[in-house]
Specification:
Elements: H1 2-19, E1 24-37, E2 43-45, E3 50-52, E4 56-62, E5 67-73, E6 79-81, E7 87-89, E8 95-96, E9 98-100, E10 115-117, E11 122-129, E12 133-136, E13 142-145, E14 159-161, E15 170-179, E16 182-196
Antiparallel strand pairs: 1-14, 1-16, 2-3, 3-4, 4-5, 5-11, 6-10, 6-15, 7-8, 7-15, 9-11, 12-13, 15-16
Length: 212
């Protein structure tokens, strides 16, 4: 009996360590466009995260703490993106104001003038939720942005902690666009996914797997 108890005591730390071991995989989380609330006459290419209707074409590109896009104005009128009415809705359904390229971190909560997109032209920009950005004090402090998918990365490694709860979740971007006196409120919905790397290098590719 004493020998059995001693054996359990010796093995207990390794058993606990094994149980607590994280599932870390080489790869990355991403998100792809899968539905849009907008004009009825539209087309969605979930493979490339591209949306198109008679007025606009927009190509989305998910990033760690932001979502980039290229918006083409197909109409014969100048259109404006109304940033003060735009929003990011997280996987937990929490809404946040957004800021875009050219806005300083310190000014992100201030009013942002609309961005004009002239007819037959393309705008390259990005959106990031204001509530995900903060200033950290201290010797190694500075501005930092939290990831849109709240996962932990392994330092100096291509591996991240794999969590099934983060797969198939939905995040949304509300992007109001004004054309003359009309305002169209687009709601772009993105679904989260995980893509395992085969060569430990990130590269853009087609398909639901936005990164390899």
């Amino acid at each position: 009996m004493k020998r059995l108890l001693l054996l359990i005591i010796i093995l207990l730390p390794s058993i606990i360590c094994s149980a607590q071991k994280k599932d870390r995989r080489e790869g990355d989380y991403s998100a792809y466009l899968y539905s849009v609330d907008g004009p009825e006459d539209h087309n969605i290419d979930s493979v490339r995260s591209v949306y198109e209707d008679p007025l606009i074409k927009i190509d989305w590109d998910y990033g760690y703490s932001q979502i980039g896009f290229e918006l083409t104005n197909k109409s014969d009128q100048t259109m404006k993106i109304l940033w003060d009415d735009a929003a990011y809705i997280s996987m937990s359904n929490e809404s946040s104001r957004v800021f875009h390229k050219g806005v300083k971190y310190i000014d992100r909560e201030n009013s942002q003038p609309p961005t004009s997109v002239y007819k037959n032209s393309t705008l390259s920009d990005l959106i990031s939720p204001t509530s995900y950005t903060r200033y950290v004090t201290g010797q190694y402090g500075g501005w930092t942005s939290e990831p849109l998918i709240p996962v932990k990365r392994v330092l100096m490694s291509y591996k991240v902690e794999y969590n099934e709860n983060f797969i198939g979740q939905v995040m949304r971007v509300v992007l109001p666009i004004k054309i003359e006196d009309s305002i169209l409120e687009y709601i772009f919905s993105f679904k989260t996914t995980f893509v395992e790397n085969t060569n430990s290098k990130r590269k853009k590719k087609t398909g639901d797997d936005l990164y390899d």
